[in-house]
C-alpha cells in the first residue's frame, strides 16, 4: 500500500504535516477527513513510487497482462474494474504492486498511458505509446492486443535464441577454461627444458610467444581479471547514458553478420506498429512519432523523426528513409509503391511479416553455424599449443 505525504489543518486551524498509508489519493483524503483534518495537499510519497519504478517484470508476464486487459475491456468491463481484477489474480508481487499504483492513478483521473509511463521497467515505451494512441483513437482493446502479441513474439524469439546459444556458450566457456589451464599450468613446465635452445637462439618463434604468454598469464592473471571486470562495469555504466546508448545502437547495426539481424528486427517492429496505427485511423505524423519508439534503436528513431519532418513539408515517407541509409532497399521500395497506391497501412504490415520471417531464418542459420565455428576456434587454440611445444622437441631430437 503506497504512502502519501499530506499537509492539513486541524479543528483549531493549526497546520499539520504527516504521512498516511492508503490505496489511493481519494482514500487518503477520506482517512484524513475521518481524523477531523482538512487536507490542503496530498501527494504520493516519491520514495515508494521510485522503488516501484525500478521493479522489473518479465516480458512473458507482461504479454499475458496485456492480453488479459484487452480481453476484459473487449468484454465491456470498465478499465478500473479490469485493472483491479488483473491485480488480484496476478501472482507476480512486483506487478501486483505496480497495478495497484496504476489503479490508484487512473482512479484519480490520470490517463492510463501516463500511469504506465511511471514504471519504465515494466512497461516499454512502445506499450505506453500504443496505449496512448489507443485511448485517444478509441481502439484501446486492439492496441493492447497488438502489444500482447508483439511482446509475446519478442519473448519467444529471445527464448529460442538463448536456448540455441546455450550449448555453444557452454562449449566456449569450458573450452576456454581448458585452454587457459593448459597455458597457465602445463606449458610452464617446458620452460626449463627449452632454456638451452633459447640460449643458442634456436627456440622457435611460436614456442617463444607461447612461453611469454604463459608467463604473462601466470604472473598477472589476477590483474587481467580485474581489468576485464573493470572494463565490463565501465561499459555498462556508459551504456546507461544517452550518448552511450546511441553509440551502442550504432555499433549494433555495424556488427558483421549480426548487424543486419538487429536492423531487420528493428525495422519490422517499426513497420508493424506503424501499420497498426494507420489501420486504426491515427494520423501519419502521430503514428510515426509512436512507431519510432518501437524500433528499440535510437539511430533508426532519429531517421524516422527526420522523415516525419520532411512529411510536414509535403515530401513522401520513402525518400527520407532511403536517404538515411538505415532501411533496406526493398523495404523502401515497397513503402514507395504503397504510398502511390494509398495502401500503406496494409503493405507495411506485410513488410513486417516478411522481415520477421527472413530474420528468423537468418538467425537460426547463424546460431547453427556458431557451434562448428566455436569448435574450430578451440581446436585451433589447442593445435597452436601442441605445435608450439612439439617444434622444439623435434628440433632437439634432430640435433641429437
Draw up the topology in text:
Layout: E1 3-9, E2 15-21, H1 25-34, E3 38-44, H2 46-53, H3 59-74, H4 79-89, H5 93-107, H6 112-117, H7 125-137, H8 140-186, H9 195-199, H10 205-239, H11 242-254, H12 258-279, H13 284-294, H14 298-312, H15 318-324, H16 329-341, H17 344-399
Antiparallel strand pairs: 1-2, 1-3
Helix pairs in contact: 3-4, 3-8, 4-5, 7-8, 7-13, 8-17, 10-17, 11-12, 12-13, 12-17, 13-14, 14-15, 15-16, 16-17
Describe this structure in words.
This protein has three domains: 3-44; 57-149, Type II secretion system (T2SS), domain F (Receptor-associated Protein), CATH 1.20.81.30; 150-400, Up-down Bundle (Receptor-associated Protein), CATH 1.20.81. 76% of the residues lie in helices and 5% in strands. It is built from 17 helices and three strands. The chain has a three-stranded antiparallel sheet. It is extended and about 105 Å long.
